[in-house]
Each structure stands twice: as structure tokens, then as C-alpha cells.
Amino acid sequence: MYRTYFFALMLFAMSCTNSTSKVGEDQQSSQQIEYVMNDSLSTDFYTDMKSYVPAEGFIPTADIAVKIAECVLLEIYGKESIEKEKPFSVNLVNGIWVIEGHIPNGNDSALTFCGQSYVEIRKSNGEIIKLLHTK
């Protein structure tokens, strides 16, 4: 009797665990959350702690600098405008990444007069020093 009861209880527990975990996995794959707003976060929490700073800076490569610039530019000026400016030109000058949109040459006056984006990002800490778009 004890063995039958124990076996039935174990079978029930395993079936509950398996069905719950499958539902959880399905929910996670279809509803992954990128971030959660949290009003309790504050800059005061870690004021006494020293920050990690990579030797090569937070923005060590041109690829990262261009991705950051593109992300911010897309949010401000829209995908249609910024996509026309690819490929971006990039250069590192005195520890500052300079990223500039490409102005196409040719007969298409609409593209020629659409303007050009320009972004400066400090390599050491990722600060966006300057961001503009000519007209």
C-alpha cells in the first residue's frame, strides 16, 4: 500500500513539474522582456564604489562607435534618412571617434540635398560629445 501511494505521489509530482516547465519555456520564448522600468534605481547606490574602466576604453573599436551612432541617429532622424547615408566614414582623432554619414554623388538631387549626419563619441567613456545633421 505504501509503495503504491508513494509511486502515485511521485508520478503526480513529475507530471505537474513537466507541464509547468513546458508552459514556462513557451512563455519565455514568445515573451522575452528586454528591460523593466524600476523607479527605485538610483545613482546614489554605488557612489562609494570604484567603477570598472577598460584599458582600451568603453568604445574600443570603430564598429562599436558606428553602432552607437547609428542607434542614436535612427531614433532621432528615422531609418529612411539614415540608411541613405551608409556607408559611414569613421576616424579616431585624439581619443574621439568621428562618424560621418556618406553623401552620395550623382544626379539624384533629393539625396544630395538631404543632409549628412555627424557624431563625435569619446572612446574612453562613450560620451556623445556632438551630434548633428546638416540640411
UniProtKB/TrEMBL annotation:
Domain NTF2 fold intervals: 64-135
InterPro entries in the record: NTF2_fold_dom
UniProt-listed Pfam families: Imm-NTF2-2
Protein name stated in the entry: NTF2 fold domain-containing protein
Species, as recorded: Bacteroides parvus
